[in-house]
Protein 1
Amino acid sequence: MEKPEYNYAVVRGFVNWSILWGLVAILVGVIAAIQMTNPELNFPPYFTFGRLRPLHTNAGLYGWGVGSIFAMFLYIVQRLCKVRLWSDKLATFQLWLFNITIIGAAVTLLLGYTTSKEYHELEWPLDIMVVVLWVAFAINIIMTIVKRKEEQMYISLWYMLASIVGVAILYLVNSAEVPVSLFKSYSAYAGTNDANVHWWFGHNAVAMAFTAPPLAMFYYFLPKTTGAPIFSHRLSIVAFWSLIFMYLWTGAHHLLWTPVPDWIQTLAMGFSVMLIAPSWGSVFNGYLSMNGQWHQMRENYLVKFLIVGITFYGLQTLQGPMQAIRTFSAFIHYTDWVPAHIHMGTMGWVSMIAFAGVYFLVPRIYGRELYSVPLANLHFWLILVGQLIWTISLWIAGVLQAGMWNAMNPDGSLTYTFMETMVEMYPFWWARTIGGVIFLIGVIVFIYNLIKTAKGGAPAPAAEGRA
Amino acid sequence: MWEKKPILFLLLATATILVGTIVTMVLPFAWVNTEHDRIETVTPYSALEQEGRDVYIREGCNNCHSQTIRPLVAEVLRYGEYSKSGEFVHDRPFLWGSKRTGPDLARIGGKYPDEWHYKHMDSPRAMVPKTNMPDYGWLTENSLDPDMIRRKMDVLDFPYTEDEIKALAGKNEMDAIVAYMQKLGTGIPWREAAATEIVGELENPFKGDAAAIAAGKAVYDANCAACHGDDLSGDIGPELTDMSAYDDAILYEIIYSGITDGGMPPFASLGSTKVWQLVNFLMYRE
Ligand code: HEM
Ligand code: HEM
């Protein structure tokens, strides 16, 4: 039998598994949110807030985020290069190693094996698995691009390649550690150096994993969905190169006012503000590509996900630079404002785009039309409202908290003790849980819709041939 | 042209990424943790303290607690002297954190007596009713593994003695974490420097005023009861029912400046009004 033109089986595998890990992440997120209001729900040793929060972030960022990025990249690269994946075996290996790594991450984090570094908690044996995983992925993508049949590399491929080298450099440098036992190691860097290296990693992990890849998806799925091309190729070129140049200077905006040397902080602040330009370059490019197509916002649920997603990206990249300014950072750093920034990014931007990607792929990977478009619309509204309740309540909480922490009496003493400020957070933390549950219901609707589709949606006409 | 050549593209992208990387991540190694940062009085962790630090990491305390104090007025007032680079040279990894669900711990060392920490870790809500910090009493059930800790000290290249390792045998993880808490922020003698000198005559502005006494009771319940007991009968701190040995001004000074080597924290950050209310509550309540 002749091999089908493209390998969709592995794409389907990544879609299914990443959704499962996403569900786990969101469930654990809701539990962590409840633990913040009801500490009696900590069950030591494995299920305390201190261990569940890293499980939530890792399952969310790596299980759901990176898992769906793998799915989309493996699909998009084949279509844009007009060839099958370089190696099917390597892709299958990548899928299973990915799942084993995520399971390993979940188990070891619950057991308390952690480096403590945010978004790089995994201990050295898992670090090695992550590196192997990324190399397998990189080789397959790069080799597929090398043997492509389409001479020009489309914008999405640029972002993909940048993300592949970017993540590789960041992860390797930040992994340097000296093992003492199978599950314990000490960082190769100490104190202020360690902090500076780590947040160079931390911020650019956001750039290379949660900015570049969703942009790659956006640039691919938007024109595919609307049928209209991207507004300006030149704008994409300028936005791309300036984005990947500027991001790397900004890590220290996580360390403003700390002992990290001032000049690094100042550079980070300056470049963060400049980042507005390339970020909004992509946002405008997306909006202007909708010229004459805006009616599709009503008619096509996919366009809704994509455009609302890029809008949250736009808001995120205005809010981020604001937070990177010393005076503003002095106010909101360490407060509940920051988790709200994060969740507008992860729930509003990354997840919106990933959901759009999955819907787009449904007919191709399951060979059937989506079971229900109304359910997809319901999904959209639930995750939008859930996210807005989550983030808006915590922005208010953050400002209130910052105000109380800094409030002083005329005699130069503090107006509030720490606990007087903390008890004011409880109502907002409750609101966050409610927002999270709404988001969770949205995701369950999504999964139900997919299961119904896979089990018996109408067969998609010539799914194979669709571009 | 680069749009058609993937390998060239990869090289260009890598070079672009490396510029900012080299300037803001590689170059700083020439400035940070060098002689310039060195602080004489900052010493490495003892075996027990380092083990406590590893328990802190394992339990993810850093998800709720930060460990850097920024040079901002309200922050220094709340937590103590701002953090210096040289204080962290022995920290692998750094534990500065990014979220203050709970208070900063960079200068927790010496703020409370050990006994306070044991009680608080065992059951935070018994001390601070509305806190959301999890209970960690179960740490007392985990005894320490001296051989493993010796290995850690060797890898970190920290000085230790065999007696110090032997002494770990009967200890548990709770002892370790309390020892670590007491070490934090004590590398520089900041408490002595921060002790506020009270200048001028101290005059009780509310002497015997009923409203001030009532207000003082509320301040007491929130800030003092955990150590001196709900009914002033004493617990970690002494009984406070009979204050006849003091006058208003001395009592004010004790509360304002604390008795740092005795385990009584200073409460200058409450402000003079609240401290006077406390004085009136302790001296003149019915
Ligand atoms: C121009 C773009 C952006 C800039 C300049 C920026 C800036 C910042 C700053 C200054 C912080 C630190 C806040 C604090 O702790 O005080 C932060 C945190 C964070 N941002 Fe952004 N942001 C940007 C875009 C994004 C995007 C698109 C995402 C995608 C999800 C994102 C995710 C995060 C995350 C996860 C953190 C939390 C890090 C932590 O654990 O402390 N950011 N950002
Ligand atoms: C139902 C949805 C969700 C809920 C209820 C939820 C809840 C939470 C909670 C309670 C925290 C701890 C905040 C704190 O310490 O103050 C947190 C942190 C975080 N969550 Fe979520 N989350 C949800 C969805 C997601 C998703 C989908 C992602 C990623 C794709 C994500 C990524 C993160 C990250 C990166 C942090 C770290 C925040 C920081 O460093 O301050 N979350 N989340």
Protein 2
Amino acid sequence: MHFNPRSAFAIYQREMARAFRTAFQSILAPVLTTSLYFVVFGSVIGARMEPVGGVPYGAFIIPGLLMLTLLGETTSNASFGIYMPRFTGTIYELLSAPVGVAETLAGFVGAAATKGLILAAIILATARLFVDYEIAYPLLAAVYIMLVASSFALFGFILGIWADSFEKLGIIPMLILTPLTFLGGTFYSIRDLPAPWDAVALVNPIAFLVSGLRFSFYGVADVPIAVSLGLTLGFLGLCTVIIAVIFRTGWRLRE
Amino acid sequence: MDEPILSIRGLTKTYRNGPRALDNVDLDIRPGEIFALLGPNGAGKTTLIGAVCGLVRPSGGTIHAFGHDLSRDWRSARARIGLVPQELATDMFETVWRAVAYSQGLFGKPHNAARIEEILRSLSLWDKKDAQIRALSGGMKRRVLIAKALAHEPELLFLDEPTAGVDVELRKDMWEQIAALKQRGVTIILTTHYIEEAEEMADRVGIIQGGRIRMVDEKRAMMERLGTTEAVIDLTAPLTQLPEALAGFGAVLSEGGTRLTYRGGNGQGRGRAEVAQLAQALTRAGIGFTSLDIHDSSLEDIFVGLLGTEQEVA
Ligand SMILES: Nc1ncnc2c1ncn2[C@@H]1O[C@H](COP(=O)(O)OP(=O)(O)O)[C@@H](O)[C@H]1O
Ligand SMILES: [Mg+2]
């Protein structure tokens, strides 16, 4: 197995530079959305809500909101990162370089994980303006955020290779990710759902992600943390395998 | 002869739901040469380059570069190959400097600012190094693509229609750049549909049409065939023999001495000049003529000729 760290680093640097070029937008958008959610759900509605599992409602929704933004941003960022070069033709350079799937993914996914952490920090800082909270397992939270960001960067990467139009690029985050995150217990504990909906909700894989992150924050979860972690790792592995196959066959990359 | 730097055997490419873009292509490229791949639009030039550079998956055949089989040892081969694509595909928002530095890293080379500076200066891009690529003209964008392709110091460089849509002045400039690269020992394969370009630049020329290599030859030999001027002069009165004054032109009498035919030239206007001199010499010698028909053989003639023979075979 060959791996050229310089190539991977070049891709990483370029992906980071791309984010910083649009830094204003990439920072302002999540700050604004998070603030809006906190004003509406945290302060206005949250004031009338009971604590969930011993956690005040305003603090309870932080991991879910974080996940909502993280999944959306990471997926669309990674999908654009590979779709645009295909669209403009600049992908020729990546394809003609002595670069394999390992370097490509290390560059793209490494950058996505970094951006995910920065994004999380921004959201948490914004949340701090509205509610008080303490993170029970900060290291676990950071690792978990990086894992989720990496998995969904891979997922976005697949999306960006699959899509052959801008509509298709936008449709998955909008029609699948956002609804599933909303239904995945962002604003409530799925344990509080009436039967049979509490069971139905567990068909939604994102419920496990939200639950996992919430555990790292407050030590409470709808499903065991090991299950959440396992599922995330499984998803990461699945996406990696799919991308390896795509690179091997050249699907949608090489004519 | 040296081992070929690039050796293609039986290369075939059929696009999905598309035409057979390459049909059993054999080609050897010698180290240090400039090879021009000459052919009309749709001939398969870009596909051929794509197959070598990893953009196109061949349907059949083998490609060896630097002795490596590209289907297995693509990494080591690609690190030594550079590509300037036909389309001006650039990262619009990137600066020139960063775009070139990125290419250097992507191809696995350590960052080398001095090398980047040298490349940018040689391409007259130095004062544009901090400009965003989208702010540059088409000719300048093409140079950025060349700079990117040179950033990892390739030994084999592909230039796909480097002067398409470039004005005459820039074209001359580009030719100088290419000549300078050859001086540094880079092997260059360029595609073009301008004969003039092949003529100006190449050591050898390959003519491709309909996905097949129709002929490969030294430029000189090719130009003799491509660049002939033919003049047919019908004389007022038959001649039995050419006067002494006309002997130097190599013209021949036919049709019972009523027709004088000249064939010659170098594809660069010498033929027409000689025909003019011939006509003047005829007048001076008091030989009258009723018509003078001049025809330059062109790439098109060769194609027509090639197509003709193919149809006969078919
Ligand atoms: N991506 C593609 N899909 C289908 N057909 C293609 C594709 N690219 C090129 N072709 C076809 O293959 C043939 C050769 O094209 P190309 O290699 O681009 O020729 P050239 O570069 O000599 O103009 C043409 O008939 C062209 O229409
Ligand atoms: Mg072409």
